[in-house]
Every structure is written in C-alpha cells, then in structure tokens.
Design goal:
Elements (H helix, E strand, L loop, with lengths): L5 E7 L4 E4 L6 E2 L4 H14 L16 H5 L12 H8 L7 H8 L16 H15 L3 H13 L5 E3 L2 H4 L19 E4 L1 H12 L6 H7 L3 E4 L7 E6 L4 E5 L3 E9 L4 E7 L6 E7 L4 H8 L2 H5 L2
Antiparallel strand pairs: 1-2, 1-11, 3-5, 4-5, 6-7, 7-8, 8-9, 9-10, 10-11
C-alpha cells in the first residue's frame, strides 16, 4: 500500500510559521474556494455593493442562503451522470445542461428552512458576485483578497493547461471546468495565509466577520473524520475536532487529491494549518491538520 503524500503549512498568531513538504508546489484548492467566494461577498457587502439578503432575477433564495447552503438547491455531486462524465474525461457540460439536470426535481426544501451542501448554490453565488463587481471571480479574488494579503501564487484555474502545472500528474487529466463555482490553485502557504488573514483582521471588519461566522449546527461525530461536532457558517465549516477543539475553515476533495485548511482558536497560540494530500479523502487531510502537537513543537 502506497503511503499518502502530505504538504502542509502552518501559521501561529505569535508569528511562528513553517512548512512540512514542498513549500513551492501548487495544489488545487477545491472547495476551499468557497471560503474565498464568501469572503469576497462579505467584502462587497461591507462597501454596500452587495445585499446578502436580497433576491435577484426572480430567484427564491438570498445570497446569504447560498453561501450557507440553506437555499434548498440540490448538488450535482448527487447525480451519477456527473461522475460518469468526469470519469470518462468528457468536456464540462454547459451551464444550461447542468441546471436542467439540477432543477429536474426542483428545490429540496423551502429556502432558509433546512441545510444541504450545494456546489450549484456557490456557482450562482459566484455569478452574483461577478455581476455586481463587473469582473470575473478570479479578478475579484485577486483584488479583494490576494493583493491585500500579498498572495502571489493563487489563481482561478480555467484550463487543463493550468492544472497540468500542479503537483500531481493526475491533475493534467482533469478539466477544472467541472468545478462550476471555480477552483482556485496555489501553494499550501498561501492557503494558510488566506485563512489566517481572515482571522487576524486583515480582510474583514470585526462585525462583518462575525456575520460570516454565524453557524448552522449540523450534528456530532462524522465516521472516518475527526469531527466531534459539525456546523457550517458562510463559506466555512465550523465545529470541533477530537483533540484540537474548535476548528474553522474548509476541506475539499477532487478525483486525485484532498485538502484541509483550518484555524484552531482554542490553542494557547492559535494556529492556522493548510494540508494537501494525494489521498482523495478529506478525512485523511483533516486528521493530519488536527495533529496540532506536530505544528506546536516545530
């Protein structure tokens, strides 16, 4: 059995930081992109450019509900047709074809009354952000997040050629167009710095960040993962991990890799850890991230 490969970066609030693995390799951020989308929406709401609670274009849900997965939208990951097409290396479907499949059974529930994870919801959130900003999501993230934090490696991948430059060879055979809300790529260090910047006050005003951290509780332990309590805020998984206390951030996974980027505020020296692995299992990355003694002893 081949052991999983890990590449991690950690930042403590005291200023200590370090790396385990290749500090310069680039990785797909997968669903950690949702955190950047949510931060972008919150920043636009701060300047009055975006109303989180407005409905637009006749849609029955708000942007806040989309960001918190309470809009009632299905997820394309539940459809066998989607996974079959990705496995067969087909070109990504058009937006219309995707939505035709997703809307075939309507909403899962009345918006705001329950919770269900939806990549489609984040695709629509992305489109609202682009409409208001008058720029692509990549340009918005660059302007609102990367420039203020000095993040040089992060870009929104749109082509196979961009993916071919990532750490693992399997990336060259994947079209990022299958990630309909967009897939950021970058180093482990910049992933950690992005989340660290959210919690040290470099990205959002305190009151805006508190709105982003408002958690929808989802329950207790998850088999095969370190969570003992689970919830979801706006673009942030939020709960507790065994032995680590509170954990706030996001995990992500694709066909050939997984990641976990989390802030652990209950530690004496609060730490943000970003971990990337070629094991396509979020739990593997999460367990590694929650091994706080490794980072605290470094």
């Amino acid at each position: 059995m081949v052991e999983a490969e890990f590449h991690s970066y950690w930042i403590c609030f005291s200023g200590r930081e370090g790396a385990d693995g290749d500090a310069f390799a680039r990785f797909p951020y997968w669903s950690f992109t949702k955190t950047a989308i949510s931060v972008s929406a919150m920043k636009l709401s701060e300047i009055g450019a975006l109303d989180l609670d407005a409905r637009s274009h006749g849609q029955p849900f708000t942007l806040r509900q989309l960001l918190g997965h309470t809009a009632g939208l299905p997820d394309y990951g539940q459809f066998k047709e989607y996974h079959r097409a990705v496995a067969d290396n087909e070109p990504p479907w058009s937006r219309d074809k995707l939505l035709e499949l997703v809307w075939s059974n309507g909403l899962l529930f009345e918006p705001g009354t329950s919770w269900s994870y939806s990549n489609v919801g984040y695709m629509i959130a992305k489109e609202r952000i682009e409409e208001v900003a008058g720029q692509s999501l990549g340009a918005v993230i660059c302007e609102l997040i990367c420039k203020p934090l000095g993040l040089k490696s992060i870009e929104l991948a749109e082509t196979r050629e961009q993916f071919s430059r990532l750490r693992w060879r399997a990336a060259a055979h994947y079209d990022p167009g299958w990630v309909y809300h967009g897939c950021l790529t970058g180093t482990a260090a910049d992933a950690a710095r992005l989340l660290h910047g959210l919690f040290n006050g470099d990205l959002l005003m305190p009151e805006t960040r508190e709105l982003m951290l408002d958690v929808y509780p989802l329950g207790g332990a998850v088999p095969g993962r370190p969570w003992t309590a689970c919830g979801y805020a706006l673009g942030l998984m939020s709960g507790k991990m065994e032995g680590a206390g509170r954990a706030i951030g996001h995990s992500g996974a694709g066909p050939f890799s997984a990641n976990a980027i989390y802030y652990f505020p209950d530690q004496a020296d609060a730490v943000t850890v970003a971990c990337f692995t070629d094991a396509a299992d979020e739990g593997v990355a999460e367990f590694r991230t929650a091994q706080l003694e490794a980072w605290q002893a470094s």
